Amino acid sequence: MASTFHEQRCSICELQHITYRAEEWCPECDEYLCSSCKTHHKLAKASRRHKTVEILDLKELPSFVSAIKLECDTHHENYEYFCPKHEIPICVICAKEHTSCGTFTILRRLEGMKTSPSMVKLEQNVKNIQQHIEIFLQNRRSNLSNLKGQHESCRQKVREIRLEMDQHLDKLEKIVNDEIDTSYTKQKQQVEKTVDNLSGCETKMNTIQKNIEKIKDHASEIQIFLSIQGIQKDVKEEESQLSIICKEELNERELSFHPAPSSKSGIVLKSFGELKTNIKPADISFVGKEYFEAQLVMPGANKKSIDKIVITKNLEYALPTKLGVVKVAGCCNIEKELFLLADQGKKLRIIVVKPNGIVVCEIPLKQPPNNVVYVNKTIFVSSYPSSTLTSIDFETRKVKKTIQFDFKCEALAVAGDKILLHFIDKEYTLYDLNLVEVAKIPIRITNAPFLSYFNEKIYIAQWKANIVYCYSMTGEMIWEYQHADIRGPEGITIDNNGNVFVGGFYSNNISIISPNGENSRNLLNLTEVLSHPTALHYNQDFNQLIVSSSGNNKILVYDVS
After folding, report:
1. Which residue spans within 365-498 are E strands per DSSP?
2. CB 38 within 8 A of CB 52
3. Which residue of 481, 499, 539, 547 pairs with 556 in a disulfide if CB–CB is 3.0 to 4.6 A?
4. For the purposes of burial, counting CB atoms within 10 Å of the CB of 499, is it exposed (0-12), middle (13-18) or buried (19 or more)?
């Protein structure tokens, strides 16, 4: 368009130095036409087929449409064709340079563009995007509303904790103050008794002193002589009494208060709790396809179905006979290259092996292990018989710390940067890497010697009831799963997608449970290769499943895809 429609003056009349208001615009001629010129334009043979646009309609067009040029900048010819390869309009002269670009679209023959497939698809796409925007806006507004509620809920929980702590501290304060008052009263009475005794002695000695002075002033020699004997006897009695007081009652009595280590909030109670901001994938997403068509993708649609998971044996080997009888109770991997096997056979130890079965070293233990995990260059070993949890420096092979418990400890797992431990008939407990208790999780399950952790969830295998549980870190059960194919579940491990691998001790198989706990699949029958699987570990770096048993020296390594 050579000029903007805002001028609204007839282009032909302007060439004659006449000013008339334009009423129409011819896009092919790129000229504005007044009422007179538009009549001639419609009658002229060269332009009678041109479709003009009224100025009022032209004003409604977006500025970018009005600014579209219909003339080639290079050759100053009208655009006649559209090149499909370069996606640009071209004139007749330009067409000579685009002979190999395919079939041109003839611009002058375009008809029905308002209802063309391209326009329909464009409108559908715009509508779909608008719908998505509305859905996303509703989703974000809902998230804002939820955040507001969660904000108040978090603050309310802090207030509740503060109230509970205040009440508990008030109770402890009363107990210790009562004890202080009782002790103070007792010690005060003892000191006051001594003061009374000393005051009695003082009174008697003052009386004796006065009597001596009177005797000296008024008694005869014979009276003095005879009186001294009696006075000496009284003095001796008081001296004896004073000696007893000095020996037994002059001890310095003090009161002092020494805070217990657990009462020093700066050491143990560093905070009321941990605030976690969880950013998880939205329940909706936008996926572009041809013509930028949009669609909603339901949650979990991008996760691998358990029916599509393929497991292939990568390696099967027996541990060297020089190791003797090995009973693998638990296993884990050290980064990418090594595996740890907790051996509770005749030799109590941790066996370090490569993925190909080559033994790297042995770490002797004092207690029989039943679980082993590795984090931050430290091995953590739990022992059911000795009720202990031990940390070992992997590089030096030396014990860093051992904790003795009053209860039998069963399951052990790494939970982020913490250690999660389960005691029989007790709550699950979190420890930091220095084996200092951090928190208790209100989960009480018996007969559950194996657990696993993934993405803020705790997975528990209860072998006696043949049930697999999934709990949140706050102790709330998310789901439980039971199936006839899973009998005596013991070893349990999780892959990168949250799929749960479970070893059936009595069913002698490996099953996989979906992340939502709704279905399962018998993944592997071990009857002919290994009996009673107890130790399972999923190597998330290599996507490999390691399987072992306390009944033999065999190790199985499977590739999972």
Report:
1. 371-375, 378-383, 388-393, 398-404, 409-415, 418-423, 428-431, 437-441, 450-454, 457-462, 467-472, 477-481, 489-494
2. yes
3. 547
4. buried
- C-alpha 231/C-alpha 227 separation (Å) is 6
Phi-psi sector, 324: left (phi>0), alpha (psi -120 to 50), beta: left
φ and ψ of 498, to 5 deg: 90, 5
Select from 458, 461, 468 the least CA-distant residue to 420.
458
Stretch 436-450: mean pLDDT: 85
- Given this model, what pLDDT does residue 529 score? 78
Mapped onto helix, strand or coil, the DSSP state of residue 506 is: coil
Gyration radius of the chain's alpha carbons: 46
How confident is the model over 184-211, as a mean pLDDT? 85
Q: Which of 535, 507, 539, 534 is nearest to 520 (CA)?
A: 507
Report helix, strand or coil for 187.
helix
Specify the range with the lowest mean pLDDT, choosing from 118-122, 176-180, 436-440, 515-519. 118-122
Per-residue pLDDT tens over the stretch 326-363: 888 888 888 667 888 888 888 888 988 887 778 888 89
CA 154 to chain centre: 17
Question: What class is the 306-560 domain?
Answer: mainly beta
Domain ranges of the chain: 11-115, 119-252, 306-560
Could you give the CA distance from residue 234 to residue 350 in angstroms, rounded to a whole number? 82
Give residue 356's region: left, alpha or beta (phi > 0; psi -120 to 50).
Answer: alpha
Which pairing describes strands 477-481 and 467-472: parallel, antiparallel, or unpaired? antiparallel
How many Cβ atoms are within 10 Å of 250's Cβ, its own excluded? 11
